[in-house]
Amino acid sequence: MRTPRPPRRAFASTDGPRVAAMASVLPRGTSVGLPALAATAVLLLMSATAVQSSQGDKEPVYQDCVKQCVRANCTGARLRGFQSAQPQYMAMTGWTCRDDCRYQCMWTTVGLYQAEGYRVPQFHGKWPFARFLCFEEPASALASLLNGLACLLMLLRYRSTVPRQSPMYHTINAFSLVSLNAWFWSTVFHTRDTYLTEKMDYFCATAVILYSIYLCCVRTLGLRRPGVSSMVGVLLILTFTSHVSYLTFVSFDYGYNMAANATIGMVNLLWWLCWCWQNRRTMPYWWKCGLVVLLLHGLALLELLDFPPLLWVFDAHAVWHLSTIPVHFLFYSFLIDDSLYLLNTEKMGVKVE
Which of 13, 90, 179, 332 is 20 to 30 A off residue 325, Cα-Cα? Predict the structure, then answer.
């Protein structure tokens, strides 16, 4: 999922390409594509696009271009012509005539920035991406989908390998469903960035982080002290409710959301590592868990490499999501080994650590 980033500082028009050269450029028309997944489309019908102010969309040339394009293409007979020619999947995913004008004018502005030797700007809080079909960020959307498929594949393998009697069976299944939900919304968000999909992506990502702490608590403490895991579970639910309520009704603060998730993630990291170190002599598979948490937190640093997309497709966020796909296989390998270990020790009447 994407780590939320605060919008970039607005760029003064006197620092960018000359306005006189820009003002004469207009978009040539609207773009078309091929069918996409209808399952995600229905979820986007009633959502409105989230707008964040950035360097590119603050430029007068971009704003004037959008105004002239909307005036020329998005009213009266021309709007009806646009709607009749627009592919159904574009309409279902919420692409409007105004959105298409923004997309075309974004590339007009990018071209002028590059022609005059300026760094590529961001638009509405994100880098410019080449749209593929109805996918705004095709690489990140594909990577999110592949993460979800990897999670689903390993969940099915876990269910076919581990008997339901294993103490962690139901907790791990619930964690997997929470993760699948998060990857689903990550795919939807990178397909179409709207107010609804952005919130669902961020909130579901937080839910995974919090549930991973619950999973850790149940495994390290709850099997011997169920009351402790129940209390931690209640606390985590209250934390999630407070977090979502603040971001929804008070302020959608990207910095706060990032700091909160990073803090929770660090607690999870240290907790798992301490448990792995404690059990390194008795559980030969402990290294899988330790490597997974280190990889997940190490790979997240890729988000710091904030650069314009390569080929207008691959940015740091897409590379991060692609790099986490193999981690699912290692993590579920650990879960399978550990669940079978717990089942065997329970049968032998050995104290669970």
Answer: 90
Angle CA 80–85–88, to nearest 5: 105
3-state secondary structure 106-124: HHHHHHHHHHCCCCCCCEC
In this prediction, residue 35 carries a pLDDT of: 33
Is residue 13 within 8 A of residue 19, CB to CB? The reply is yes
CA–CA distance, 327 with 267 (Å, rounded to integer): 20
Nearest to 97 by CA among 175, 27, 12: 27
Instruction: Determine the pLDDT at residue 257.
Output: 87
Decide if 199 contacts 245 (C-beta within 8 A): no
Name residue, tokens 């079909």.
133
The tens digit of pLDDT for each residue in 288-334 reads 999 999 998 888 888 778 788 888 888 888 999 999 999 999 999 99
CA–CA gap between residue 309 and residue 139 (Å, rounded): 10
Largest CA distance in the chain: 81
Per the CB < 8 A criterion, the answer to whether 151 and 183 are in contact is: yes
299-315 burial: b if 16+ Cβ within 10 Å, else e: bbebbeeeeebeebbbb
Helices (H), 162-285: 169-191, 195-217, 226-245, 254-278
- The enclosing H or E element of 93 equals none
- Non-local (6+) Cβ contacts of 71 within 8 A are none
* Sign of CA pseudo-dihedral 314, 316, 321, 323: positive
Question: How far from the centroid of its chain's Cα atoms is residue 15's Cα?
Answer: 32
Residue 171 CA to residue 156 CA, distance in Å, equals 15
> What single-letter amino acid sits at 143?
A
Predicted confidence (pLDDT) at residue 140 exceeds the cutoff of 90: yes
Task: For residues 201 and 1, give the distance between their C-alpha atoms in angstroms, rounded to a whole number.
Answer: 7
